[in-house]
Each structure stands twice: as structure tokens, then as C-alpha cells.
Amino acid sequence: MTGPTPTVPAVEVRDLWVRLGGAPILAGVDLTVAPGEWVTVIGPNGAGKSTLLRVVGGLLPSSGPVRLRGTSTGPVRVPGTPTGPVRLYGTPIDRLRRRERARVVATVAQSPVVPPGMAVLDYVLLGRTPFIPALGRESAADLAVVHDVLDRLDLARFAGRELATLSGGERQRVFLARALAQGATLLLLDEPTSALDIGHQQEVLELVDQLRADAGLTVLATMHDLSVAGEYADRLVLLAGGKVVAAGKPREVLTEDLLATHYRARVRVVDGEHGPIVVPVRR
Ligand SMILES: Nc1ncnc2c1ncn2[C@@H]1O[C@H](COP(=O)(O)OP(=O)(O)OP(=O)(O)O)[C@@H](O)[C@H]1O
């Protein structure tokens, strides 16, 4: 008898360890994101959220646990997972070539490098690079995708402007536009709305959610606004000190106790229409 075919996760992270500058940043992180799911990683400053997204996006090498094995000449470090602990749609990320990876996963980093003198249109066009043959030029279809994304993000009027002259919020929308133009099925958003006013914040998150419904996009994000995080995500993962300390539906993770313990914050959590609303309360 055959049962339903198990779905291959869009993201599967098993026992991820990261050390940077000699210090452990992530210590045994597990994370699964199903295709079409929206998971948001929350946690206090320095918890390791951006690091986790950078590893999942292939921007930082990953490793399994490093164990010490005794030999006659002393202990040696051996990686615990030969293929690495991160799989995207079933393939270990270190087996994906750069172009292949770019077709699968697009990242909006917290502070991307802004190339000096580059116009908005050319910057967003960079998102089409995986589809442009080496030594080739962008096609009319590439340009059509870019113009469509600029329209959707209310950026068409900035197409010819130098990126560096835009406001912080306008620039943040351009960074998202570049990632959307890439057309990858998995979108990694590191604090995607931190510089946006409340209107543009809603507009951008609704657009991402709509793309999720229309195009089957999978979203892995980080956010500091806990109420907004809970409103849009199917599941939240709370990271603290490089470890997952809670994971589940927003109302399971956004509790006064967990937020007091891991953020050292005094908050009230009240029921909202689309999830819990977290209200800071003065001590
Ligand atoms: N290259 C590096 N060398 C040493 N330490 C690093 C390096 N990159 C990051 N770290 C440290 O790793 C920890 C986690 O950083 P990360 O940016 O992942 O945290 P975060 O949860 O995204 O924080 P925030 O909410 O402030 O953006 C921090 O303590 C940071 O100082």
C-alpha cells in the first residue's frame, strides 16, 4: 500500500554549527521550511538570525558539528556531516553551483552593498543575471520582468535614478525588487521592512504574501517587529544565543513568558485579528 508522497522541504537545516571570529554563533540549529510556507526567525540582537539566513542563502559556508577525535598525535577536528547540514529542495547547498543556486534562492540582505553610480533599473536587472548567458545581454523578457517588479513595488518613477540618491525606505524596496526579479522560488528576507513606513511595510509584505499564493513562493524571513512577524508567518522560530529555543505557530511562540526570558522584555500579548499583538509595557 502506498501512502501520500512525502514533500521534500524547501529548506532543511540539520544540526548547523557556525563559528565566526573564533566564537560559536550557531550551535546545533535545526530548521525546516515546507514549500509555500512562510517562516520567520525572531530573536534578540546578536542571536544569529542573519547568520542563519546567510548560510541558507549560500553566502556563508556551513558545517555540521565539529567533533574532536583522539589520535596518537592529539585531537583532530572532524566535520560531523560530510555533505553539510543545509539542503534546499533536497539538494545539499554545497552541491549547487552559483547559477543553479541563484535560480532556487534569492536573498534580501540587511545592508546590501550599493554599487557606486548604479541606476535603479540596472541594479534590479542584476537579479536576472542567472538567466543571461555568459557574454550575452539581457533579453526583452528580462526587461519585462524588471519593469513589472518595479511597478509592483511602486518604484517605476525611480528607474533612472542613481540608487545611492534614494531614501533608506526606497532603497530597501529596490533591494527586494532585485530579489523578486531573480524569480527564485525561495525568498530569504533579512529585516525586509526595517526602513519602511507603516504603509509601505504593509504593501511590501502583502505583495510577498500574494506572490506566495500566486507563484508558490516560500519565505524565510527575520523580523524585529514581533506583531508583524506573527501576522504574516505560518510559523515562528525563536533563536537565542545561537540556539532554537522555541518554534511553532505565532501564538505558541509569542508568549509573555518566552519574550521575558529571551528578550528580557516586559510585554503584554493580546489577541489580534491575524495573530497575537505584542505591546511593550514600561517597567
Ligand atoms: N564575521 C564575524 N566575526 C565575528 N563575529 C561575528 C561575525 N559576524 C557576526 N558575528 C557575531 O555573530 C553574532 C550573531 O550575529 P547576527 O548578525 O547573525 O545576529 P542577528 O540575530 O541577526 O542580530 P541583529 O538582530 O542585531 O541583526 C553577533 O554577536 C555578531 O557580532
Automatic annotation (TrEMBL):
Keywords: ATP-binding, Nucleotide-binding, Translocase, Transport. Pfam families: ABC_tran. One of its GO terms (molecular function) is ATP binding. InterPro entries: AAA+_ATPase (IPR003593), ABC_transporter-like_ATP-bd (IPR003439), ABC_transporter-like_CS (IPR017871), P-loop_NTPase (IPR027417). PROSITE patterns: ABC_TRANSPORTER_1 (PS00211), ABC_TRANSPORTER_2 (PS50893). This is ATP-binding cassette domain-containing protein. The keyword Translocase applies. Residues 11-266 form the ABC transporter domain. It comes from Micromonospora echinofusca.
